[in-house]
Amino acid sequence: MHEIVLRAGRERPVRAGHPWIFSGAIETGLDDATPGDLVRVRASDGAFLAIGYANPATTIAVRVLSCVDEDVDDAFVARRIAAALELRRVTLGDATACRVVNGEGDRLPGVVVDRYGDVLVCQFLTAGGARLAPAVVRALDAALAPRTIFERSDGAVRREEGLAGQTGVLAGAPPPERVEIEEAGARFLVDVVHGQKTGFFLDQRESRARVRALAGARRVLNAFAYTGAISISAALGGATDVVSIDSSRPALEIAEAAWLRNGLAPERAQWLCGNVFEYLRAEPDRFGLVVVDPPPFVRRRDDLAAGLRGYKDVNLQALRHVEEGGFLLTCSCSQHVPRDAFRDAVGAAAADARRPARIVAEWGHPPDHPVLLAHPEGRYFKAMLLQA
User: Fold this and answer.
1) Where is 200: in which H helix or E strand?
2) What pLDDT does residue 303 have?
């Protein structure tokens, strides 16, 4: 195992539990490592700090696996998977649609696993995560005996790590074209092969519950509707009608099929395939509840200023569609947008729209998306419910 020695005075974040060590904090040992190599990290005085895996080609040069000097083998990975599953059991009960492993939050950086019934979808986003993949698959198979373990490893992080995208069956049978899941009595359909992320937004569980509780006797607009989970939740909560708009026709086709699976009347729904921004800027139709959950506007730290302008604009336009006393549920999944900055952008939108608003509730990560206390970079999800 390679040994990494930190510069004097740079060990404090590691000792505090931060899972990333940046290249600028390293004195020696990094040049000898290849992407994904296991490394032992020491302070400048030689004291042991952590076990992790390295990538000398990236700014995040080491991702910490353990603060105990231990072997990283099949047994290690199995313990991490078992601990992750136990957390889901005590916080979500018998939920069969959830995130099973959330990277650093479950002390397996670079590894994401989502569960859709008996289908598991894995993302190995870093060189070290890819090295752990065989052990992760074995542990998942032993713990859950799924029908399918499918890989969807792609995106910007893998490109930064020097890895090509990887998709395919890791164990079991090929996944079905659409996987049906259940959440609080609602049925949703998931395309694990072609859908966004791993096919579904599991992190929006609380948003779906809030919408269902608020939607009764209201017209609902679901912007950036994707596969319609928010729309279905609104309808099951008693919405009079739901307008859903998204730029993806295949996603809306899944949404329509899932709507019917829930026994909902077709005439209560409108499915619009088009540009959400153009729709919001048009002469406004009014709704008792508007939901705005756009894709991330800030994918890199350098994009923060432009992204905040985007959040202000989309919320300003959305507020024009909220009837007097109605509600706006607005979300951001941009990792680089702090909660306070997001709140300020939405506040500026309300001021410019001349729609005084009050914050009714705010929330973030659900229990199956845990975040280390010392790792603020992991807190990407923000939701805010306003009354205008």
Assistant:
1) none
2) 86
Mean pLDDT over the full length of the chain: 96
Annotation marks residue 333 as catalytic: yes
Phi and psi at residue 63, in whole multiples of 5°? -115, 125
Q: Catalytic residue, from 98, 122, 331, 333: name it.
A: 333
**Where do the DSSP E strands lie in the chain?**
2-6, 20-22, 26-28, 38-42, 48-54, 60-66, 97-102, 111-116, 119-124, 148-153, 166-172, 179-183, 186-190, 219-223, 241-246, 269-273, 287-292, 322-332, 358-363, 382-387
Contact 323, 287 (CB under 8 A): yes
With 90 as the cut, is the pLDDT of residue 178 above it? Answer: yes
pTM (predicted TM-score): 0.95
CA distance linking residue 20 with residue 265, whole number of Å: 50
Give the N- to C-terminal CA distance of the chain in Å, as an integer.
58
Question: Of the candidates 255, 224, 244, 118, which has an alpha carbon nearest to the alpha carbon of residue 181?
Answer: 118
pLDDT band (50, 70, 90) for residue 217: very high
Mean pLDDT of 303-310: 91
Domains and CATH numbers, the chain: 2-66 (2.30.130.10), 74-172 (3.30.750.80), 179-387 (3.40.50.150)
Q: Report the pLDDT value the prediction gives residue 284, as an integer from 0 to 100.
A: 79
CA–centroid distance for 322 within its chain: 27
CA distance 298 to 305: 9
Q: Mean pLDDT over residues 39-55, rounded?
A: 97
